[in-house]
Amino acid sequence: MDMFNLNSLFAASLSNDDYVGFTFFVGSMAMAAATVFFFMERGSVEGKWKTSLLVSGLITFIAAVHYYYMRGYWIDNGTSPTALRYIDWTLTVPLMCVEFYLILKSFGAKIGLMWKMIFFSVGMLVTGYLGETVFRDSNVIWGIISTLFYLGIVYEIWFGGAKKLAASSNDPHLQKAFRALGLFVLIGWGIYPIGYCVLPGNILHGVLAIETLDLAYNLGDAINKIGFGLVIYGLAVNSKNS
Ligand SMILES: *C/C=C(C)/C=C/C=C(C)/C=C/C1=C(C)CCCC1(C)C
């Protein structure tokens, strides 16, 4: 009965000095635990926040499943699980844009704001993927194009339409949470390009070990996906008490 081999299903040979491997294991468990938390707490927040908590839980759930596979890929091959990584991001980053729309919706956000941010995030990820795979030799130029899309999102949140809606809301809880989410996008998301820059031919290649790429991506994911969800959870709880 090779078809269902429990041994291979649960086998996971992580060596003691595989520090990137550590972060894949910690990442998959942290994402799973965060998912349970967001889904359970969804029951205790007021109606209009339930969708936001659902989306927070979906983000960490999608990541938990991908981390399970990426962890195995890393153990088996010792190389970056690039395809799985970008599939995860292509689903979760647009959902983070949906979160921005949801919290600003009751202050007049239009659906166009959400699509604009989703457009920027898909542009950022497709060009980043091309730079890491198909056009690896010219990853610098693809990284620059990807960064321009990223700056589009940053602009929207710090100076553009999203910023104006938050400012005009006159809700201190919303403004505080919006600022925190904006910092995640500015600083937390800024961790990823650092990992990308260790690719061959890029500016940090040879300066930092090639493993820094997955280390940075795993660190970024944990901070951004779980932290983002916690800020929204805090907003849901605080605005209920006010
Ligand atoms: C949950 C996953 C998140 C929040 C992923 C975010 C990913 C980025 C902000 C990636 C950005 C990149 C650049 C700005 C340039 C180089 C290529 C990327 C895709 C690593």
Question: What are the defining features of this structure?
Answer:
242 residues; mainly alpha; 10 helices; 76% helix; binds retinal
The structure class reads mainly alpha
What order do the SSEs take from the amino end to the carboxyl end, as H and E?
A: HHHHHHHHHH
What Rg, in angstroms, do the CA atoms define? 19 Å
Net shape: globular
The percent range for strand residues is under 5%
Task: Tell me which CATH architecture applies here.
Answer: Up-down Bundle
Count of individual beta strands: 0
Total DSSP helices: 10
Are there runs of 5+ residues with pLDDT below 50, and where?
A: none
Short synopsis of the structure:
Helices cover 76% and strands 0% of the residues. It has 242 residues and is an all-alpha fold. The radius of gyration is 19 Å and the shape is globular.
